[in-house]
Amino acid sequence: MDRALFDAVQQKLSDQWTNRTTMRNASDHLLTGLLFDDAGHRMVPTHATKAGIRYRYYVSLPHLYGESKTAIVGSVSRVPAAEIEDVIAKSLNDHLVAEKEKPNSSIAQGGDRRTVLEQVARIDVHQDRLTILWKPADAEEASDPADGRTLSVPWQKPPSRKSRQILIPNGVPQNEVRPTRIERRARLVSAIARGRRWLDEIVSGSDTDINQIAARQKCSVRQVNMTISLAFLAPDLVKAAVEGRLPRGIGVERLRDPPTEWSRQFEALGLNPQ
């Protein structure tokens, strides 16, 4: 496709998308119409819903319309809306405070943020920075936005997935630590859940003692006791087990019958809780 024709089509699609979404997103997308990727494509507001939670984004048009493989695209195709809005708002506030144009709390509220953003002509999103282009001081005399001032803000796109670091045993190099196997993790998490359920049964009175649980489960009283002891694990240990961050070798057998104090549980396992 000819470059001029592609730009014209992109602009038309952008206008159509902006018209459809401006009213719908006016209340929660501060940067509508201002964001562009570093290839010059407009970034428009969109959202995704996961597990009933609505997440807001800004997406470049080629990526949105599935043209990423055929069009010249920028280095960043999608950014989380809340994060980039906060960075822009704070940067503008700090800049205006430095110039003594606004008080320090000038954009603390959403309405004030919009007022300040009225002075911005364009924001280009690069992989390592945001370039904010101010509108010219005299808009009537300078119709070209390039006549305005620019503000460069260091920035990195937040990772799409948060890293989950394995709990490191004391005295062992990080590169020598491997995560627990998937099947052992599933067995451990299932045992913790079973121990908590049996403890709840005893506390609630649905089962009067451990002997009843052992008879029902056709196992020994000792096994019931050891499983219930998993209900007293430190929350951080349980979270690490669920997320697969425990090092290989720490499973049900190592975690049964833990010390009462949560801090001592990490010591007994030789783990660094940080």
Task: Summarize the structure in short.
The strands form two sheets. Strands 1-5-6-7 form a four-stranded mixed sheet, with no helix packed on it. It has a three-stranded antiparallel sheet with strand order 2-3-4. Residues 21-27 and 103-110 have low confidence and may be disordered. The protein has helices at 3-25, 61-64, 81-98, 110-117, 182-204, 210-217, 221-229, 235-242, 252-255, 262-269, and strands spanning 35-37, 43-50, 53-60, 78-80, 120-125, 129-134, 150-154.
Describe this structure in words.
The protein is α+β, with helices and mostly antiparallel strands. The chain has two domains: 3-10 and 29-154, no CATH class; 174-269, no CATH class. The chain has helices at residues 3-25, 61-64, 81-98, 110-117, 182-204, 210-217, 221-229, 235-242, 252-255, 262-269; strands spanning 35-37, 43-50, 53-60, 78-80, 120-125, 129-134, 150-154. A four-stranded mixed sheet has the order 1-5-6-7, with no helix packed on it. The chain has a three-stranded antiparallel sheet with strand order 2-3-4. Strand 5 (120-125) and strand 6 form a beta hairpin. Helix 5 packs across helix 7 (221-229) and helix 6 (210-217) packs across helix 7. The longest helix has 23 residues, at 3-25. The model is unreliable at 21-27 and 103-110 (pLDDT under 50).
